[in-house]
Amino acid sequence: MAYLDESFLLHSPTARRLFHEVAKDQPIFDYHCHLSPKEIATNHRWKNLADIWLGGDHYKWRLLRANGIDEEYITGSASPREKFQAWAETVPYTLRNPIHHWTHLELRRYFGIETLLSPATADEIWEQANARLAEPDFCVHGILDKFRVSMVGTTDDPADPLDHHEAIANSTLKTKVLPTFRPDKAFAVDQPKAFNAWIEKLEEITDSGIHHVSDLLQALQKRHDDFHAAGCRLSDHGLERCPALPCDDADASIIFDKARRGLPVTAEEKEKFTFFLMVFFGQQDAAKGWTKQLHLGPFRNVNPRMFERLGPDAGFDTIGDERQGAALITYLGTLAERGSLPQVILYNINPRDNYLFAAMTGAFQDGSVAGKIQFGSGWWFLDQKDGMELQLNALSSTGLLSRFVGMLTDSRSFLSFPRHEYFRRILCNLIGSEADRGELPDDFDALSKLIADVCSGNASRYFGF
Asked: Which domain of life does the protein's organism represent (predicted)?
């Protein structure tokens, strides 16, 4: 079997038929990513292959460092061609890492290049890809159209302006691009300097003074309303774990006042304040019919020296081992008790939590919406073949795979849409191979419905797109 041929990851006749006849051409609902609204609004173009392929991609940066490449050729001042050469030298060492698959799927799907990347082929690929980048249709809007992207959900802070989203909405772009409400900076009361700088931005965007915790809630409510008017239907939180220490208005006011005055806030106080706001956000989301995403578990920026040098989102994060269950039950249970539990998607980063999260969804379904509480797709360190299969198996064993809202890229790169193809091949192989072994019914129509729903139909219905 040739590498990355039409049967890539498809190991049975029914698997191949499901992918090519059903999954392959389904529209993409990339409901959670970190693409730039500005680049979408301006229909951005790229200068060269390094610009579009290596900038901001901490997945690649980690492998470059692991291969002994100096930081000068990763995030430093080396030329784009030199950085690309460093990546070409690294790719042959990535065998069995999903990056090897993704790299060559991207070269094929975007640039029509079937040559494997190596130091020997770097010049040829650099020139061929750059020539393709110069063609008129190789721009943000052209990519979204080429990959049949029906919807993109960006990730936006409440203090961010929404002017780029307004420009996109008023453009001729067929893809629906919607903001996602990500208010994590509101929790940073233990970092008064950063917290107060963020409060000042929030004051400016809401044209209000924020002197008391009640003012903060009013400003956040205003931005929640503004996001809703801009089409937002999802919120998101990235946490090591859910907060679990109850906090009333009086305690929240005391903690907020300390942070505003630049006084130290303890870890316990931060958790209480985070719980206070998370309940508030959950009630907001439920009232508007939004879906709340909870990305739980990573240890971020664990290398102090490199964090000081490069800042966040540079590849110095890892899988965390916080105990997730009890805190998550406390949070979801609090919202359920108050009649304010919105639709929720739970994402874990530690594979040990697969069955914990999958089973947790069943404990909070209430029959109001099919699949109201979702076990989200394999995320970050788990968005590869093994991680996706583990997630699909845990979900299938404890709940309804047929109601799953499917894959997302969680990416900052416009070259990441083949990850949907990657997921679809894995899904079709799982279902098709089991059917060919007699573990699922020999009913192509029923299997086709499951595949089409998980690829796109469920997301379209669940999010109201």
From this structure: Bacteria
**Taking Cα atoms as reference points, which of 383, 415, 420 lies closest to residue 113?**
415
> What pLDDT is attached to residue 340?
98
Helix, strand, coil tally for the chain in percent (to 5): 55, 10, 40
Residue 143: the pLDDT is: 98
Q: How far does Cα 293 stand from its chain's mean position?
A: 10
Largest CA distance in the chain: 67
- Going by C-beta distance under 8 Å and a sequence separation of 6 or more, which residues neighbour residue 117? 87, 88, 91, 92, 103, 104, 107, 125
Q: Residue 351 and residue 174: Cα distance in Å, rounded? A: 37
Distances (CA, A) of 67 to 60, 76, 77, 375: 11, 16, 19, 34
| pTM (predicted TM-score) | 0.97
Contact 342, 286 (CB under 8 A): yes
The set of residues, in sequence order, having a beta carbon less than 8 Å from that of 440 and lying 6+ positions away, is 431, 434, 447
Q: How far apart are CA 445 and CA 159, in angstroms?
A: 47
Q: At 278, which amino acid appears? A: M
Complete DSSP assignment for 172-210? S--SEEE--B--GGGG-TTSHHHHHHHHHHHHHHHT---
SS (H, E, C) 352-415: HHHHHHHHHHHHCCCCCCCCCEEECCCCHHHCCHHHHHHHHHHHHHHCCHHHCCCCCCCCCCCC
- Structure letter (DSSP) for residue 136: T
b/e burial code for range 331-352 (CB count within 10 A of at least 16 → b): bbebbbeeebbbbbbbbbbbbe
Query: HSE of 202 in the Cβ direction (CA atoms, 13 Å)?
Result: 26
Coil, strand or helix at 276: helix
Query: What does the chain come to in residues?
Result: 465
Pick the closest to residue 383 from 99, 91, 34 (CA basis). Answer: 99
CB neighbours of residue 129 within 10 Å:
23
pLDDT of residue 189: 98
Residues 151 and 261: their CA atoms lie apart, in Å, by 42
The pLDDT score that the predictor gives to residue 120 is: 98
One-letter amino acid of 454: V
pLDDT, mean of each 10-residue run, the chain (465 residues): 96 98 98 98 98 94 98 98 98 98 98 98 98 98 98 98 98 98 98 97 98 98 98 98 96 98 97 98 98 98 96 96 98 98 98 98 96 97 97 98 97 96 98 98 98 98 92
